[in-house]
Write a structure and sequence with these properties.
About 50% of the residues lie in helices and about 15% in strands. It is α/β, with parallel strands linked by helices.
């Protein structure tokens, strides 16, 4: 993708966010409209931070703005496809867009979907990681290229003669990219196996068991997350430059990628995405809440550690967040709305 094309894509996304807010302002400016919020369907994605965000949104929209909220299970690609083709769910609080960037931009350009928040979590990052004890024991492993040379250090349980690279579960946007990078680095020929963990819990368990047993582990993960913070995982430099947005979006992020090229991971971006119907029907207050709702990465990591240590559900964690982090969320809403929410969660 050329620089000019990248700039156009960026402008489309920024303009879409601005249009969302502008249209919402014209839709309703009275407090009465807040009480007529109606039914709202929110995607509860299948990883911890997204579960937390969906449940916080549910409480704030219901208790603060009078909405009738239902949560529906989701994943990156399936939620995007459903919102784009069926107009449901209304909100995807944490949509990691790298795996759906091209179709998302097309949908936003067509007015089907809109970005309500172009950065709901700070300090984001995706990539390939190793445990700190591995990095300490093998200081020569500074890049992905270095690790690929040593499959013997990361033996697969079923076939110890091969190295294990742990990828994303099916349905996650990163699954296709990891598979294509695996091919691009010619990892199979270099003695590696691509391991599907089966689920988000399987991915977490794979990392946790290895780190706690001081075994080597090599795989995909992202930050902010409880495990990255808890285990102080080491994110690897890929040792190669970014291949460019045109090849990343047009090949590496797609199922059909005839000639994948090695690349560092693209810059990670997360949006809160809403449907056109929701944008048209939502009030100024709700639009402002979604725009203002930004989680500091450190606070998100802290909440994710809480969820892991206490086996807390997204609903439980949402209450804990609202009770213990008022300085964060009260900046997202006006004082009257904050008082309603505080009264509801006592």
């Amino acid at each position: 993708m050329t620089i000019n094309k990248m700039a156009i894509v960026a402008l489309v996304i920024v303009a879409a966010s601005a249009t969302y807010l502008s249209t919402s302002e014209n839709t309703s400016t009275s407090s009465a409209s807040v009480n007529q919020c109606g039914d709202v369907q929110i995607a509860e994605m299948n990883w911890a931070s997204a579960e937390l965000m969906a449940n916080v949104d549910k409480i704030i929209l219901e208790k603060g703005y009078g909405c009738n909220v239902s949560l529906v299970p989701g994943a990156t690609t399936t939620t995007f496809a459903s919102m784009n083709t069926k107009g449901q769910p209304d909100i995807a609080p944490e949509l990691w867009i790298n795996g759906v960037r091209e179709p998302l931009v097309k949908a936003m350009d067509a007015g089907t979907l809109h970005s309500a928040n172009g950065g709901p979590i700070t300090d984001l990052g995706e990539g390939w990681w190793i445990p700190p004890h591995t990095a300490k024991a093998h200081p020569e492993l500074k890049t992905v290229l270095d690790v690929i040379k040593r499959p013997d250090l990361f033996p697969d349980k079923e076939d110890p003669s091969k190295g294990a690279f742990v990828t994303c579960p099916a349905g996650w946007g990163c699954q296709l990219t990891n598979a294509n990078l695996f091919k691009a680095f010619d990892m199979e020929a270099k003695g590696w196996k691509l391991i599907n963990p089966g689920s988000g819990a399987g991915l977490d368990g794979s990392m946790s068991k290895a780190v706690e047993r001081e075994q080597n582990w090599f795989g995909y993960y992202w930050s902010p997350t409880a495990l990255i913070g808890k285990y102080n995982m080491t994110k690897l430099d890929f040792g190669v430059p970014f291949v460019g947005s045109e090849h990343w979006d047009g090949c590496l992020a797609k199922e059909e990628c005839a000639d994948p090229q090695p690349s560092t991971w693209t810059k990670s971006e997360v949006f809160t995405v809403v449907t056109d119907q929701f944008k048209k029907n939502s009030s100024t207050e709700v639009a402002d809440y979604l725009k203002n709702r930004i989680y500091p990465g450190s606070d998100m990591n802290e909440m994710l550690v809480y969820m892991g240590d206490n086996q807390a559900s997204g609903a439980d964690a949402a209450i804990e967040f609202l009770l213990t982090k008022p300085e964060v969320w009260q900046s997202w809403v006006d004082s009257d709305t904050a008082n309603k929410i505080k009264a509801a969660i006592k």
